[in-house]
What does this fold into?
Amino acid sequence: MTSSDSVEAHPAIASLQEMIRLRYGARDLTSFPKIQARQILSGGHRSRFRGRGMDFDQVRIYQPGDDIRSIDWRVTARTQVPHTKVFTEERERPILVITDLRGSMFFGSQQLKSIIACQVSAALAWAGLNANDRAGGIIFGQQKQIEVKPRRSHHSVLQFIHGLQDYSADLLSVQSSNNKSPENYSLAKIFEESRRFTLPGSTIFIVSDFVDLNKDCERHLFELSRHGNLNFCHIYDPIEKQLPPPSTYAVFDGTNQALLDTSKGDIRTRFENSFNSRELLLKQMSEKLSAGLISFETTNNVMNVLRRAYGKKRSS
It folds into this structure.
């Protein structure tokens, strides 16, 4: 088995082949949140701008200044009143996926949060490309980041997916090392860095466990929301929401092992309150910023959750 094969088969590293296969399931994700597009480029979404473009909008009475090439001669002949065709231009809506692959994502009772985050990010990038939009993203690891500029190109999405696999592999390496270095990025820092990379009119997806979400993040999120349509993809493990039944469990962080006694009521209460407080803060921020919010438990099938949110049968 080659080194690339061993990476592909490792359960703690996002599978490149699996993320590529998500391209086909992502074809169903056609109902992204609607926003007013601002990019003056060809794309797959209507905007409020009027002009000579791809989509026919309506026929109305001719007005001074209308392009004579747009006159609808059939309607004009039938009504004896000059009528002109009005077209709705298509404007681009870049898809930007911001993926958090810091240390807290290396956790899971069945699947790692980092694996789910990579699958969600890959599916969203493919969905953007399938919608004829530019797709790209930013991946944040323990101490570094990689930026893939949104492009209408399979190579761009594949570059992003390769980055997801590489950063999930780095996360395994860091967590397994005895020489752990402090993280360079807080969640607030991630949002601040992302602001410099976000194009106006973008649909922005933030894929994270939001473990260090706080009021300091709000200012940067507000600035991101001004650039386009903001969406939170919250990744969590069921153990984070509720500790397992009362007993003593061995827990391992990649280096150290300890025993966790879940029979103590105060521990269970503090643990559950911590998750509930973070979830409530995320909901409050999403409402305040008019942002979308989707929750992914690590036991969920990623595509099933995304289809419920953005599938073809979603009512508008």
